[in-house]
Structures are given as structure tokens and as C-alpha cells.
Specification:
Oligomer: single chain
Strand content: 5-15%
CATH superfamily of the largest domain: Type I PLP-dependent aspartate aminotransferase-like (Major domain)
Strand order of the largest sheet: 4-10-9-8-7-5-6
Distance between the termini: 43 Å
Structural class: alpha/beta
CATH architecture of the largest domain: 3-Layer(aba) Sandwich
Mean pLDDT: 92
Amino acid sequence: MVKDLKQLLEANCGRQHELFAKYLNPQLVRVLRTISFDNNYVRADGPILYDEKGNDYLDLLAGYGVFALGRSNPKILKALHEAIDLQYPNMVQMDAPLVAGLLAERLVSYMPEGVDTVFFTNSGTESNEGAIKFARKATGRKRILFWDHAFHGLTTGSLALNGGTEFRKGFGELLPGATMIPMGDIDALKMEIEKGDVAAFIFEPIQGKGVYIASSAFHKEAEALCKKHGIIIICDEVQTGLGRTGKMFAHQHWNLNPDIVTVAKALSGGFVPVGAICYRRSIYEKVFTGMEDCVVHSNTFGRNILAMAAGLATLDIIEEDGLVDNAAKTGQIIIDGIRSMQDRYEMLSCVRGLGLMIGIEFGAPKSLKLKMGWKMVHALNKGLFSQMITVPLMKEHRILTQVAGHNVDIVKLLPPLIINEMHAERFLNAFEKVVADCHKFPGNAWAVAKNLAAAAAKSKRMAKDEERDRIIQTHSNDTAGILDDVTTTPVGGGEGI
């Protein structure tokens, strides 16, 4: 008999970190405990998470953008229940499912002129992997150009196009021909393209890691350059797409006309993984060259009815509820509110972004006392100052945010598109209190940084001890030489703290 899920969850409430550490990822659990993000969430509604005590948390992370419509959206739930109750034949594979055609038709209606073909995937990284394949097959060339700081996913091909070495280190050669260039550097792009072997240039309209935005001049020149040389332009809209930036798709801010647009995250409605590659028919014809190649690129779950139903409902809600305009309006309230604080807080360097994709960057202070604190924290860990913002926001104000990348002094906001002025004010009031505390040295905020560094060091020692015990149990008859190695080998990279 299938166990009742609600009873199962209630009976095991509070065990999530124990089980996750034992069977999935103990290092992640150490991080969560170190930065006090190890809450026991039991319910979610819109932009709010609730723990077992009924405390509410404002979610400004939105599952890295997945929950653009908020959590537990009733319209998505209704669409999924209908899809299940229909008992419609699903994933027959040797068929052409109607629901996939309907969602493709809707997606194409938002695309640049000529982007009229869709391939459905299960995630953003799979969308980008497919785009790489299509570009190389369609052009007969191998090299893919990408920006520093880029993030296109963590599977092998997408990882090769990752501008952060912290993700690539230790995995060897990933994709021959992957070439990184400085973000927004038109001369570097031109130099690589003129070598004659470039298949595609892939970019995020707004980079997820750091919330960096290239200039309008770069976009115009880069597009003209790629068109001139037959380079396929891949616009990664996995995080920026579907209203996030105050436009349905971020490339519309610059009136760009890419050849491939990749989509995922928000298209799921927060329930069923779904992504898409939207591309030109001319590319399709060079990849799927005949009937014998009709499944030269394929997957098992990409067109399943639940994913397609979630996608259709998501697009309906974005349009009917005016979420694109709300993202632009509410995002501007947050950005203006932060900018109004800059004169009062010298370490608050800048705020940038479009819509509800916002990066808040901090910089070295000029006053002597604060300069001492800044140097101390960065000597402990280059990425520690940002945690002086995100940790108190969570512990003291119950607001979930994130650090925008490794070893950067940038805090990132990626809220659900449904947040309103009340939520914006809640964040701005809490944020100013946290920033004000950081401008008192010595003080509680700086003690937080020292405690985080100490906790991280303790966690590393505990990890070493656990690994030592594991090896003793595994090699109980011959441990001496192995134990020496474990004692002297560092465990973990410390870059997630």
C-alpha cells in the first residue's frame, strides 16, 4: 500500500538536514548550518515561506527564479490537476502530442522574427546543451564564445562555458573549442570571430553571477558582427526570461534578434521541470536533415503533459496578472530605495539590474575604522562581507536573499514577480538596518563575520574528523598510511561560505 505522503512528512518533520547530510550532500548541510539557513520550512504561499512555528519568511530568492509566480500558485495547481484527471495518453513517444504544439505556438509568439521552432527540455542546462549542439551542427564549426562570469549550467557542455573557475576546477577538459572573452569587450569578440572557426556566441542578457549588464553599444555591434560572419547568436534567457526584467524577455530591452533563445526556470510554474530551445527553422533544417534524423536530438520527458500544462498556465498567468509590468514597477521601487541610501552608507557602492533581477554591490570604505574592518573580513574570506548582509537578513528579519557569486561583495535579489510595494518596503527597511549595523565598527555585524569564519573552520575540522572515522571503519585492518594523508589534506574549498 502506498503510504500517505502528508503523514509521512509529518512523522519525519525536522529530520530533513539529518537525512540530507546522510544520503545526499553533507557539505551543503554544513553550509546551511553555518550561515543559519537551516530552517524547517513546512508551508509556502506566494512569496512567503513558513516554518513549523508559523514564522513567515519573505523569499527574495524564488528558487533561483523558478518561482516567478510565487509558490503554490492556485492557477497552476488547477491546471496540473486537470492534466492528471484527463488521463490523457502521455509520453507515447511515437506521436506528436497536441499539448506540446500548443505550448510551442505560445512561446514562438514572444520570440524575435524568424525564431519559429521549439525543442522542449527538462532544465536550463539541457536547453543550453542542445543549443550548443545545434549551433555546431548547423555551422560546421566547433568553437563557442562565452563571457567571463558567465553561468549556463553545470552539465559538461554548459559547464565548459562557465566563466567561474570555482565550478570547473578538477573536472578536466570539458568542451574543446569553448573560448572565454571579457564581458562587453567588442574588440575581443571581433578578434575571435575573425579567426573563422566560431560556431556561436552565447550570452546572458543580464549575468546571473553578479548581475552584470553589457552596454547597449556592445549589443548592437556584437549582433551586427555575428550576422556578418554567420555566427549563431544564443541568448540564454533561462533566468532572465518570462517577465523577470520588466520585459517578457530581456533581449527585448535592446531590440536584439538572436538565432536561439533558451528558456527554463519560470516556465515550470514552480511545479514541473520544463525548458525550451527556441530557434530558427534554418537551424532546424541543418540539424534534423531528413526523416532518418528526426530524433537526432531527443529526450524522454521533455514533452510530458504535466510540464506542458504548467508552461501554458504560466504564460496565461503572466499575461492576465500583469506580472511583466509589476516586475518593472516593483523592481524600480527597490532600486530607487537602495540608491536613496547610498549617501548615508559609504560601503554601499552601487545597485544595478532591470525589473526584479537586482545586484547590490559593496565597496571598500574610506573612513579609517571601517577600512580596518573591511580588510580584516576580506583577509578571513574574500566572500565573507556579503554574508554579513544575507545572514542578518535571514536571522533577524526572516528575509531570504543570496550572495551573487564566489568571492564578490554583491548581494542578489531575485524575488517572485508577484511581490508588491509592501514586500518591497519590508525588504528596504530590513536592509537599511543591516547596512547601518555594518557601518558600526567594532559592532555586532563584524562579530557575525568572525563567527561565520570560525564556524566554517570548525566545520572543516569536523569534516576531516568524519572522513577519518569513515576510513577507519572501511580500512580497519590497515589505516596508518591512509590516516596520515587525511590529516594533511584540506577538506572543502571554503568558497561557499
